[in-house]
Amino acid sequence: MAPSRVPGSRRLRKVVVCLRKGRPGNGGVAMVLKEILRESGVRAVWVMENGLKRAVGRGVDAVVVGGGDGTMLHAAQATMGSGIPLLGINLGSLGFLTSVKAEEIGYVLPKIFSGQYGLSTRSVLSAKMEGGGRSWCALNEISVAPAPGSLMVRVGVKVGGEFFSEYHADGLLVASPTGSTAYSLSAGGPLVSPKVKAMVLTPVCAHAMAQRPVVVGEGEGVELSLAPLEKAALLRVDGVLAGKLTVGRKLRVTVAQPVVRLMHPAGVGFYGLARQKLGWSGATARGGR
Known about the structure:
Rossmann fold, 6 helices, eleven-stranded mixed β-sheet, alpha/beta, 39% strand, disordered C terminus, disordered N terminus, 2 domains, 289 residues, 17 strands
């Protein structure tokens, strides 16, 4: 796969760097990264997580994020709609959204800063409460979970305006293709290529074994509502508590207009990253069985 570049720029000239505070090894990574930036002639603005949104503006070619997927999700929220790509350095554990290992930065980042990188465009979910209520955007998923004191929750689901099912489970997820590798995957959902225009409905420990994950078209829209006997349910956006879903209110989830762009080393795509992160064995990159 030939390396793609940010339109109008073959090299990165200015980046914003955000390393997760308190992450072990940050000091060493920061020292190496500063030297690479200096040698590459890249101007860098260093910020903490809470200052990321203010730092992203005109002239910024990329945001370099050091941490795990949680840090990357925070960065995605802070930069959503800007079109500025995110480059993730994995300082966590699995890190599906981070494409560069900490031990690789010495030889991978100079290539990326010189313009040798790929870009992956990721769709974003939009969730809006009916009646002019609040709205949210999520890169990974929108989740509904039992309120404190409840073990399970009943959630009615409509897809494309048609009643589909009432899930009785420990929770229900509406995941994007990007989110298919996160909470949805751990709950038994399928891996979905980010190039697929779809959403995934994934129940968490469903009471009925027949209720399985379902892939729906991104243009159909999903509507969630609580069963009449439920009191309330917790609503989370990319794992962060956003509010409550109450009886009589409806939450509509669609695909949003903004997108998130992820930067990765040239030649490293979704499937290779999935194989690496999940530790799959089998045929190598050279092919064969």
